[in-house]
């Protein structure tokens, strides 16, 4: 077929280095940028097939998030803005690793297995982060799509969650918002301004927020968005990409792992600060106290802040809702956004955050409908009317497709303003036990297998028993090990009553793994 002739010709311009194999991991393909040109072309092909199969627009984001600047990566986005399914992750790996002369065979194999009608039209949205390699790599994606006759829309430089938003807007025919960068800023800023109207007497100090842009796309987009916020937020941006290197000594991952401030940020005592990661789908907050002590407000703290705020609002309607009977349940999953997202979808309102700062809130269709009905309820008193408006604006402010640093930041700022809380008040909701994360390099990390949402090791034999006996030596202690999904290492986590104990337990467990 003529269609495949073009694939065959163009794929020669994006040749696969012989013998190189890569896997579609927790967050797509990710490695040094120099190994990725053929992967990008092929992900363009796969996105086109996925689009034909789902009769929807599919997204392809070129980014390696918090990885070093030299790396890059690619992720596919499904019609409602979610991660692509496990079955298609498998196809991605299959296509990526086909040697040059069997590419067409593998492509046709997927078409056959999925019974794809090749005469369906295809539409693919493409976005990229600010890495030097992203421009040519996203061009390779576009080449892949067009060689199969698909239509592309190149959004250029966008954050990962912005592209998820565009895909969802397109496939819901505008119900979620308008699929433009301006539409995104408008939707979020309107909701934010409506929420902050409920925070009386906000001072300029309370509007001030120090933002570390990780020298990446988030910084660029924050600048673009600022005018839409009409001085209701005073963003002091550092690591804005004008001089420093992406994610180098800055960004959410650096701050979370180092438990320290990023370079280049001048923090006053008690001042609220936050860091985005390299593609702005994660955020962590922090401040220093009067003794100069650094306090991290990570994903767990963010989840607590948002869920207690929602709970307070919903309690006003407890006489009306069945789902209020069991107000808050906690659920743990394996690491990785797709696992958390799917678990959160099981609830009327699902608040999920990874400790590293990736997360969002999902509202079921039924919950959204009930909230909309309440807006029109003539019997509502003033307090309830206000609460319903707050819920409605909160839903609009949240990017329900995926964790979004900009959207999460605005939600957090609005909640703090409405509740009149400082960073210290927020921190005091609960106290974290001292903890330590380490990584251990082993010859084969896959020998470690886990269960119970990665909290217990089932292999190698005896490892969990050793961990259990080490944990018993310390007070209030826990420790977990799991193979990383993104690096060739094993992650070790330990917590205990003091920092010394946490450090020592983490060290002992590392030795048991090694
Ligand atoms: C990826 C995941 C993130 C997870 C991290 C764990 C997505 C979009 N991102 O960055 O959720 O926390 O991997 O990496 O799924 P690790 O297994 O190396 O610790
Ligand atoms: Zn990221």
TrEMBL record:
<dbReference type="InterPro" id="IPR036900">
    <property type="entry name" value="A-D-PHexomutase_C_sf"/>
</dbReference>
<keyword id="KW-0961">Cell wall biogenesis/degradation</keyword>
<dbReference type="InterPro" id="IPR005844">
    <property type="entry name" value="A-D-PHexomutase_a/b/a-I"/>
</dbReference>
<dbReference type="InterPro" id="IPR016066">
    <property type="entry name" value="A-D-PHexomutase_CS"/>
</dbReference>
<feature type="domain" description="Phosphoacetylglucosamine mutase AMG1">
    <location>
        <begin position="183"/>
        <end position="284"/>
    </location>
</feature>
<dbReference type="Pfam" id="PF00408">
    <property type="entry name" value="PGM_PMM_IV"/>
</dbReference>
<comment type="function">
    <text>Catalyzes the conversion of GlcNAc-6-P into GlcNAc-1-P during the synthesis of uridine diphosphate/UDP-GlcNAc, which is a biosynthetic precursor of chitin and also supplies the amino sugars for N-linked oligosaccharides of glycoproteins.</text>
</comment>
<feature type="binding site">
    <location>
        <position position="281"/>
    </location>
    <ligand>
        <name>Mg(2+)</name>
    </ligand>
</feature>
<dbReference type="InterPro" id="IPR016657">
    <property type="entry name" value="PAGM"/>
</dbReference>
<dbReference type="Pfam" id="PF21405">
    <property type="entry name" value="AMG1_II"/>
</dbReference>
<comment type="pathway">
    <text>Nucleotide-sugar biosynthesis; UDP-N-acetyl-alpha-D-glucosamine biosynthesis; N-acetyl-alpha-D-glucosamine 1-phosphate from alpha-D-glucosamine 6-phosphate (route I): step 2/2.</text>
</comment>
<feature type="binding site">
    <location>
        <position position="277"/>
    </location>
    <ligand>
        <name>Mg(2+)</name>
    </ligand>
</feature>
<keyword id="KW-0413">Isomerase</keyword>
<dbReference type="GO" id="GO:0004610">
    <property type="term" value="F:phosphoacetylglucosamine mutase activity"/>
</dbReference>
<feature type="binding site">
    <location>
        <begin position="354"/>
        <end position="356"/>
    </location>
    <ligand>
        <name>substrate</name>
    </ligand>
</feature>
<dbReference type="Pfam" id="PF02878">
    <property type="entry name" value="PGM_PMM_I"/>
</dbReference>
<dbReference type="GO" id="GO:0071555">
    <property type="term" value="P:cell wall organization"/>
</dbReference>
<feature type="binding site" description="via phosphate group">
    <location>
        <position position="65"/>
    </location>
    <ligand>
        <name>Mg(2+)</name>
    </ligand>
</feature>
<feature type="domain" description="Alpha-D-phosphohexomutase C-terminal">
    <location>
        <begin position="457"/>
        <end position="510"/>
    </location>
</feature>
<keyword id="KW-0119">Carbohydrate metabolism</keyword>
<dbReference type="Pfam" id="PF21404">
    <property type="entry name" value="AMG1_III"/>
</dbReference>
<feature type="active site" description="Phosphoserine intermediate">
    <location>
        <position position="65"/>
    </location>
</feature>
<keyword id="KW-0597">Phosphoprotein</keyword>
<keyword id="KW-0460">Magnesium</keyword>
<comment type="similarity">
    <text>Belongs to the phosphohexose mutase family.</text>
</comment>
<protein>
    <recommendedName>
        <fullName>Phosphoacetylglucosamine mutase</fullName>
        <ecNumber>5.4.2.3</ecNumber>
    </recommendedName>
</protein>
<feature type="binding site">
    <location>
        <begin position="482"/>
        <end position="486"/>
    </location>
    <ligand>
        <name>substrate</name>
    </ligand>
</feature>
<dbReference type="GO" id="GO:0006048">
    <property type="term" value="P:UDP-N-acetylglucosamine biosynthetic process"/>
</dbReference>
<keyword id="KW-0479">Metal-binding</keyword>
<feature type="domain" description="Alpha-D-phosphohexomutase alpha/beta/alpha">
    <location>
        <begin position="52"/>
        <end position="83"/>
    </location>
</feature>
<dbReference type="InterPro" id="IPR049023">
    <property type="entry name" value="AMG1_II"/>
</dbReference>
<feature type="domain" description="Phosphoacetylglucosamine mutase AMG1">
    <location>
        <begin position="328"/>
        <end position="419"/>
    </location>
</feature>
<feature type="binding site">
    <location>
        <position position="279"/>
    </location>
    <ligand>
        <name>Mg(2+)</name>
    </ligand>
</feature>
<dbReference type="GO" id="GO:0000287">
    <property type="term" value="F:magnesium ion binding"/>
</dbReference>
<dbReference type="InterPro" id="IPR016055">
    <property type="entry name" value="A-D-PHexomutase_a/b/a-I/II/III"/>
</dbReference>
<dbReference type="GO" id="GO:0005975">
    <property type="term" value="P:carbohydrate metabolic process"/>
</dbReference>
<dbReference type="InterPro" id="IPR005843">
    <property type="entry name" value="A-D-PHexomutase_C"/>
</dbReference>
<feature type="binding site">
    <location>
        <position position="491"/>
    </location>
    <ligand>
        <name>substrate</name>
    </ligand>
</feature>
<dbReference type="GO" id="GO:0030097">
    <property type="term" value="P:hemopoiesis"/>
</dbReference>
<comment type="function">
    <text>Catalyzes the conversion of GlcNAc-6-P into GlcNAc-1-P during the synthesis of uridine diphosphate/UDP-GlcNAc, a sugar nucleotide critical to multiple glycosylation pathways including protein N- and O-glycosylation.</text>
</comment>
<feature type="domain" description="Alpha-D-phosphohexomutase alpha/beta/alpha">
    <location>
        <begin position="120"/>
        <end position="167"/>
    </location>
</feature>
<dbReference type="InterPro" id="IPR049022">
    <property type="entry name" value="AMG1_III"/>
</dbReference>
């Amino acid at each position: 077929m003529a269609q495949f002739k073009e694939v065959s010709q163009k794929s020669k311009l994006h040749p696969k280095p012989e013998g190189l194999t890569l896997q579609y991991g927790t967050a797509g393909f990710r490695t040094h940028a120099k190994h990725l040109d053929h992967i990008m072309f092929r992900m363009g092909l796969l996105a086109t097939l996925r689009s034909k199969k789902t009769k929807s627009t599919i997204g392809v984001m070129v980014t390696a998030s918090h990885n070093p600047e030299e790396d890059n990566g690619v992720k596919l986005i499904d019609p409602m803005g979610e991660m692509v399914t496990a079955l298609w992750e498998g196809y991605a790996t299959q296509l990526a690793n086909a040697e040059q002369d069997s590419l067409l065979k593998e492509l046709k194999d997927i078409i056959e297995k999925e019974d794809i009608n090749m005469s369906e039209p295809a539409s693919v949205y493409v976005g990229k982060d600010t890495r030097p390699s992203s421009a040519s790599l996203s061009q390779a994606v576009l080449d892949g799509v067009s060689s199969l006759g698909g239509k592309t829309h190149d959004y250029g430089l966008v954050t990962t969650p912005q592209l998820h938003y565009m895909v969802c807007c397109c496939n819901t025919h505008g119900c979620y918002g308008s699929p433009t960068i301006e539409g995104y800023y408008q939707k979020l800023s309107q909701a934010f301004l409506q929420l902050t109207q409920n925070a009386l007497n906000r001072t300029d100090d309370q509007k001030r927020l120090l933002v570390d842009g990780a020298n990446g796309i988030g910084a660029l987009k924050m600048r673009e968005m600022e005018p839409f916020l009409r001085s209701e937020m005073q963003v002091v941006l550092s690591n804005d990409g004008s001089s420093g290197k992406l994610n180098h000594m800055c960004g959410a991952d650096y701050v979370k792992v180092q438990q320290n401030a990023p370079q280049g940020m001048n923090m006053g005592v008690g001042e609220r600060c936050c860091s985005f990661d390299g593609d702005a789908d994660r955020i962590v907050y922090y401040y220093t106290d009067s003794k100069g002590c650094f306090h991290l407000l990570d994903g767990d703290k963010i989840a607590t802040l948002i869920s207690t705020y929602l709970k307070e609002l919903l309690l006003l309607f407890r006489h009306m809702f069945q789902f209020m009977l069991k107000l808050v349940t906690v659920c743990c999953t394996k690491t990785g956004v797709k696992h958390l997202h799917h678990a959160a979808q099981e609830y009327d309102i699902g608040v999920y955050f990874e400790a590293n700062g990736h997360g969002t809130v999902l509202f079921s269709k039924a919950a959204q409908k009930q909230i909309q009905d309440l807006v029109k309820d003539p019997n509502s008193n003033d307090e309830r009317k206000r609460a319903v408006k707050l819920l409605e604006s909160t839903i609009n402010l949240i990017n329900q497709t995926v964790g979004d640093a900009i959207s999460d930041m605005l939600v957090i700022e609005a909640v703090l303003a409405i509740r009149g809380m400082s960073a210290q008040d927020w921190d005091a909701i609960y106290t974290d036990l001292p903890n330590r994360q380490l990584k251990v390099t082993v010859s084969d990390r896959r020998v470690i297998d886990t269960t119970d949402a990665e909290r217990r090791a089932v292999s190698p034999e005896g490892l969990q028993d050793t961990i259990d006996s080490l944990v018993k030596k310390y007070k209030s202690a826990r420790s977990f090990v799991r193979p990383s999904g993104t690096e060739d290492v094993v992650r070790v986590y330990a917590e205990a009553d003091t920092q010394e104990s946490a450090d020592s337990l983490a060290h002992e467990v590392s030795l048991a793994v090694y």
